[in-house]
TrEMBL record:
PROSITE patterns: THYMID_PHOSPHORYLASE (PS00647). This is Thymidine phosphorylase. It is an enzyme of class 2 (transferase). It comes from Intrasporangium calvum. One of its GO terms (molecular function) is thymidine phosphorylase activity. PANTHER family: THYMIDINE PHOSPHORYLASE (PTHR10515). Its EC number is 2.4.2.4.
Amino acid sequence: MNDATEAFDAVDVIATKRDRGRLADEQIDWVIDAYTRGVVAEEQMAALAMAIYLNGMTGEEIARWTDAMIRSGERLDFSGLSRPTSDKHSTGGVGDKITLPLAPLVAACGVAVPQLSGRGLGHTGGTLDKLESIPGWRASLTNDEMMRQLEDVGAVICAAGSGLAPADKKLYALRDVTATVSCVPLIASSIMSKKIAEGTGSLVLDVKVGSGAFMKELDQARELAETMVRLGTEAGVRTVALLTNMATPLGLTAGNALEVRESVEVLQGGGPEDVVELTVALAREMVSAAGLEDVDPADALADGRAVDVWRRMIRAQGGDPDAPLPTAKETHQVLAPADGVLVELDALAVGVAAWRLGAGRARKEDPVQAAAGVEIHYKPGAVVRGGDPLLTLHTDTPERFGRAIEALEGAFTIAPEGSRPDLPPIVIERIA
Ligand code: URA
């Protein structure tokens, strides 16, 4: 039984969802608040999360759950800035370094970009881990420092403070250890509570689909995107989602310093075609969602304005944009076994290999290696010769090569010359 001073009993709330009932608004408000206060125990929230995982939530329940998580903490307010704000959230993928070129590019177009980011867990890398490979760069800013940098430079990529949606912080850690992460209502409310609390005026969601993503199937990804767009729009945030391909890694690198190097190449007008295409597509959405209809981000990339903002953004957070990036002590090449056409390079396998080389962490307190990762020499569709290097593995600890190579078994397929692989476009669908 619960404390008589509490409005509800956690056991009754769990039983409602276990029996496929609809949670009342007051039950949702109470359970999120009581969990944040430590009155609802971890094992009770674990049971409720599993009941939601199995039985789902209605649109109204998801909206109320999201709102209750927003109200568990502080809300930022960017209304004092002289420019409109826009933010991007990616559901995470292998080689997904897009935030790095995107934030300065969109800022160069006149939009303020408050990009509150996280560290990586598992096979997808975290934006902060990538930037921390730049000598001197620091992820933690106070709210005042963030506001000042948004006004002066236009773009900030920094750690989300602990004050935003603290209920989600607890719940996400719990879901991680109770097999309740991959559930549309819980993912949508988790992401959108943080983004709405952050106070951005508009938001562009990059919802990844494929082996390297949370959502392996298009239907699931579409449902997640539609749910998040609805939550954002109802909360007064102009929200658009792109469903994008994550069957194969994005660009030619997966790993922290390797991805920074590739991002700088994009900002300097080079870089892999898919990274440039997705960066510009997302930038166009952000600029348009912020209300600047006549600005084309492709111009700011071509004329060097975006790379100038990048340099100022890195310097403002103590980093040296001219310092050499760390390189790995050891490398190992994976060779093509035969002549032919590379028809598949699996994103998940490359992500797991990069992680095992030291680019990612298994537990949130683990350190990461700045220089570890995978460099990709050919993308699907390319003609290769037997013996050509397909991948270069980078690490400071060569005893990791064996497990990384194991992860890559069956990761690529080479078909006879003349084969035409079916390659999905990078942007699969737009949801608004
Ligand atoms: N990212 C989040 O912030 N929450 C989720 O539930 C999944 C991905």
